[in-house]
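Honest question from a wet-lab person: if I give you the sequences of every part of a complex, can you actually get the arrangement of the whole thing, not just the pieces? Trying it with mine:
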Amino acid sequence: MAIKEYLTVKEIVGPLLLVEGVEGAKYGELVEVEFPDGSVGLGNVLEVSEDRVLIQSFEETRGLDVANTKIRFRGRGLELGVSRDILGRVFDGLGRPIDGGPEIIPDARLSISGNPINPYARDYPSDFIQTGISAIDGLNPLVRGQKLPIFSGSGLPHSRIAAQIARQSAVLGKEEEFSVVFAAMGITFEEANYFISEFKRTAAIERTVLFVNLADDPAIERIATPRVALTAAEYLAFELGMHVLVILTDMTYYCEALREVSAARKEVPGRRGYPGYLYTDLATIYERAGRIKDERGSITQIPILSMPEDDKTHPIPDLTGYITEGQIILSRELHRRGIYPPIDVLPSLSRLKEKGIGEGKTREDHSNLSNQLFSAYARGKEAKELAVILGEAALSDVDKLYAKFSDEFEDRFVRQGEFENRTIEETLAIGWDLLRMLPRAELKRVKREQIEKYMK
Amino acid sequence: MVEERQAGEIVKVAGPLVVARGLPQPRMYDLVRVGNERLMGEIIELRGDRASIQVYEETGGLGPGDPVYTTGGALSVELGPGLIGSIYDGVQRPLDLIREATGNYIARGVEMPALEREKEWEFVPRRKPGESVSEGDILGVVQETPVVEHRIMVPPGVSGTIEEIMSGGLKVTDVVAVIKDGDRFHNITLSTIWPVRRPRLYKEKIPPKNELVTGQRVIDTFFPVAMGGTACVPGPFGSGKTVIQHEIAKWANADIIIFIGCGERGNEMTEVLLEFPELIDPYSGEPLMKRTVLIANTSNMPVAAREASVYTGITIAEYFRDMGYHVALQADSTSRWAEALREISGRLEEMPGEEGFPAYLGTRLASFYERAGMVKCLGSDERIGSVTVVGAVSPPGGDLSEPVTQATLRVVKVFWGLEDRLAFRRHFPAINWLISYSLYLDEVESQWIKEVNKEFPELRREAMALLQREAELEEIVRLVGIEALSSAERLTMEAARSVREDFLQQNAFDEIDTYTSIKKQFLLLRLVMRFYKEAEKALDAGVDIRELINLPVREDIAQAKFIREENLSEFDELEKRVADSINELIKRASAEEEAAGESAAVVSGSAGADE
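Yes, you can. This is the full assembly:
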């Protein structure tokens, strides 16, 4: 089929182009935008109305004009060419190689928007992933096929934590092929470089695929980046049978790009100017995690997002929390006190916890122990708050113990080295050891036999 | 089936909204097929010869000039044997069969009958030829699952004499009876069709009066919902909305459960699918799946079908209600449904109301919840059926002042307010007892008096007052510390803590704790309150508050929630132990007092003796 070319651009508003007199354009179709200087960018169709087509350009529209810009419709949506050779390679936000290596000779070309997984085809995630980080493994465990975001803030060490998870993750008692898909959206060169050199240093780069859209790359390209990355992940997981860990950072910049397009289209804004369909849009990304019955592979997602002003009720973390299966929240206060990883365990949550732990998976006391640690730590924090107002003397004796417990808990359980890889047994042992600080009668959530057995 | 005819063509595509021109006699809410892949859509606006269509599938690849076919009918569901145990998407396509046909992902343009065509059902007639029947009368039954007897009814608007009635193995499209009305003959098939946006008919609505027992203590005892009532569960993420919805679906004493996963997580539906066939219904002893219908339109599935999913669900619920069943419908989450409305409204370029939601949000929500209720069904046997609706609400940032929560609160009678603060403390279910309410309390309490125990309403009031008092005292403690409280006040705090921890907190993941019968709820609450009452007496008798707090029997109270349903007599012994051990303290206290008096006397006596 001959590719039609149009010179009929009528309007250019921000990232949007309006083209008239077009025949046969399809919603979602990929277009090439040829700049007056001959360079070619990509875009896609946002809306078609009779012969008028609205295009969002993934490239900056700087330098475009209405007279000489050429538009070519490609007759298909944006696709990613995939093969086993994508492992170890670096691509831009649209999936074009930028590491100087050869073009990929694809085994298949896959549409990046993907189709929703049939809920009936899903298998429930239940394999515990040992990340070696106590605050995660002990209290908010990650499970294979889960989507567990890190809610962070500017200046907090979310990148180091994500890299540590990628480095240390292992499923107990299993040796299986696994890989990492890393998508950078709008982060700085330094941050991206940290990940890349980290992957290189540990030789993980050979089983990693990177998609990089940096802060100075075109912002609209970011809308495609997570979808491109997840298309690669789906190929690795469900065609090649690998266990894939997908790190998406930073989702906040993705949402801002979406807002930019929405504002340029003059859509009715929802909260804080984000489009009303932000929830649905994010869901089409996050829901691409999971496991499928009778398939070997899995996709585990760790999206990272920075909360503006550390505000959990901001639309991005809020809507994310409604879709993902829990969240790991970082605390500025812990970070200031020099505790790494500064994971605020109380508001953190892993919704798949109960399914991933227990006898045969981790240990039979895991669930009760973590509940006990949670409630003891919560009580300790409350006691400390009270002590701030009324002075330590106002606390009952038991509350004083709890206050001390919460300090020790942060210091010994939460705090650990960036390269310290604790086994689940080590994590649980620290937990039991901490509980010895409290009177036996206070330990209501663990069973008596478990106390006898583990608290020696 | 309605015949499709070639009709108009697409002129505009914007996301899930398609505008078509040249459709012959388009009517609002008619079903259409869009494009060469014949994607399902529904007409939602008409201007001149242009019809706006919301499409239930991904619209990528559609463009101007593509054909649109009308069907002449409205979006409808198929109702008949085979519904139970099924999992459907928002427009009643069977997801299990779709997987067989197209693999792990949902491809577009899949057309599939909702009820299995080939399966034969054993139809047992209840009427004989020559008998006269009218709308709603039961012609016969099919034992659909061990617990659900599927009653085949005369459709609304049909009456006459039975000309012929079948029996034995029939397929859903087969005729079960022929009814003669004057010179017209009606062929009644095993399954029927009903448009989802039209409420099914009934004789009259009656006020709800019986409790829907959910086995969840904070709900059943403190904020009960009646069969045929409406309830909402708003809460920020992580506060346990879905767990509560699942618990109700598992343990409610309804005959049929309809669970709508509307714009939520795929894995949650998987969990239901894997768990329900394994879990045993405490009422029937059969797997829970044998009374459940699932509607799954997860968040990544097309947004327009999400809008339709709640209607699909409630129409199926009404169908079972019409057979004389008590149906509980869970919609998780109505906020996602409202967001779908908002998205479509935005594409239609309607003038937005609050926060971009359309101005008709309130009316749509109200008319959805109004389809709940207890009714006298059509038919001459005066049977009663009900639909209870429990809707989850996901307010952004947990802010209850947002439009969806507010519009919902205007129409529902029960409010279970979830709080993340409680969830952080691992107090589950994280229902805040101070802000929640139920307007069915009067009806339910009179039922308790008859069926459980006449003290129950009073006991509930006392416990509620105790919790209220605790909140006030907590304020004081926060300002001046625990030392400022009198012994009686400290006892109040302790007792309230016991109500919270030993009664309200319930572990959905514990085999025993996950379900508590209403009888056991009463016994457990009485036990907890018994301690308080006895301890009050003891305080008056001069027992030290610390001794009361540290009584070993309190540990038994904490474990009482794990007493099995078949061993409820243990509660009497436990209560006796509570009374005994406190009496022991009282005796000792008075003995010590006497002893102190005596020894004082001895001292003075010996001093006297010295003289």
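Two things worth pointing out. The two ends of chain B are 117 Å apart (CA to CA). Residues 5-75 of chain B form a domain with the Elongation Factor Tu (Ef-tu); domain 3 fold (CATH 2.40.30.20).
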